[in-house]
Write a structure and sequence with these properties.
The protein has about 325 residues and is an alpha/beta fold. The chain folds into 2 domains: about 230 residues, Spore Coat Polysaccharide Biosynthesis Protein SpsA, Chain A; about 70 residues. Helix 5 packs parallel to helix 8.
Length: about 325
């Protein structure tokens, strides 16, 4: 199969027939074998009924229904588990992503050698309350992750099949899939300017200040897990040792000062308590790293590594 198209769905019953018809027309015009996997993320409208009717009319359209709303990351992860196409494309169900982009995205994966191609909504049809925070978020993410993209959260992306079968998307990590892919060893990541259309049906299901805050918390989480998930002692142990030594040196200086000049009170000096606190924090960080290392060593996936090729092995 040439392409698998994964579409998370949450209360988008109005747009689904037009979207699927558009996708079908594009892939047929370019002679692509395809499947469309619609993942109903606990919709409360008639989305699942629409999906069932679309599948009855076209077996290339398949559906997965969640018992309740788990979020976009869960929908994508479940879709990734089900795909079989050589190229996997994700897009939103609100028709702000254009299916006309599918052939070129697939070509970039198949012919240009990219592992992942992310869409870039250079011209956005969104209010300024979303565009300004989004620009700042993308800039920070690019600097922290060293992945040079303009739009991490664009729903329109293309992947090599091996990429989606090698990563796990959970929580709200869908906006960091390029970062997750990079840490999994897929470093040929590109982007393509894509058309961002004005919403035709309904209203946006995402947004708000909490989304902005959660995005940076997730960035910290994915950065920590990627770098120190299998070696937490390297982070906590280093910080703990640094704090403890800093406190120990200051304490030693104060004790020597007390011996040299007995008239000065040791416990009335603020540096004494700062040094004591630093030593306590250092000890706690070191013990945290030690416990985390024990947990990591006993985790079921501690020795799971992505192997690209084997030769001479059955």
């Amino acid at each position: 199969m040439d392409v698998s198209i994964v579409v998370p769905v949450f209360n988008e019953d109005e747009s689904l027939p037009e979207l699927c018809s558009w996708i079908q027309r594009v892939v047929q015009d370019h002679n692509l074998s395809y499947e469309v996997i619609l993942v109903d993320d606990g919709s409360t409208d008639n989305s699942w009924t629409v999906i069932e009717s679309l599948h009855a009319a076209n077996p290339h359209i398949k559906g997965i229904k969640f018992q309740r709303n788990y979020g976009k990351s869960a929908a994508l992860n479940e879709g990734f588990r089900s795909v079989t196409g050589e190229v996997v494309i994700t897009m939103d169900a609100d028709m702000q992503d254009s299916p006309d982009e599918i052939p070129e995205l697939a070509r970039m994966i198949r012919e240009d050698g990219f592992d992942l191609v992310s869409g870039w909504k250079k011209l956005r049809h969104d209010p300024i309350s979303k565009t300004i925070p989004s620009k700042f978020f993308n800039w920070v993410t690019s600097k922290v992750s060293k992945v040079k993209l303009h739009d991490f959260n664009c729903g329109l992306k293309a992947y090599r099949l091996k990429v989606v079968k090698s990563i796990e998307v959970y929580g709200e990590m869908h906006r960091y899939i390029p970062v997750i892919a990079k840490w999994a060893g897929f470093k040929i990541i590109g982007e393509k300017v894509v058309v961002h259309r004005a919403r035709k049906y309904g209203t946006t299901k995402f947004g708000g200040f909490s989304r902005f805050i959660n995005g940076f918390l997730d960035l910290g989480s994915i950065t920590f897990v990627s770098k120190y998930g299998k070696r937490p002692m390297h982070l906590f142990g280093s910080l703990g040792t640094l704090f403890f030594l800093l406190g120990f040196v200051v304490s030693g200086y104060l004790v020597i000062s007390k011996i040299a000049r007995p008239e000065f009170s040791l416990t009335n000096r603020p540096p004494f308590y700062i040094a004591l606190t630093a030593m306590i924090i250092g000890s706690q960080l070191f013990l945290t790293g030690f416990v985390a290392e024990l947990i990591s060593r006993n985790a079921p996936g501690r020795n799971n590594y992505l192997i690209e090729k084997k030769q001479g092995l059955s």
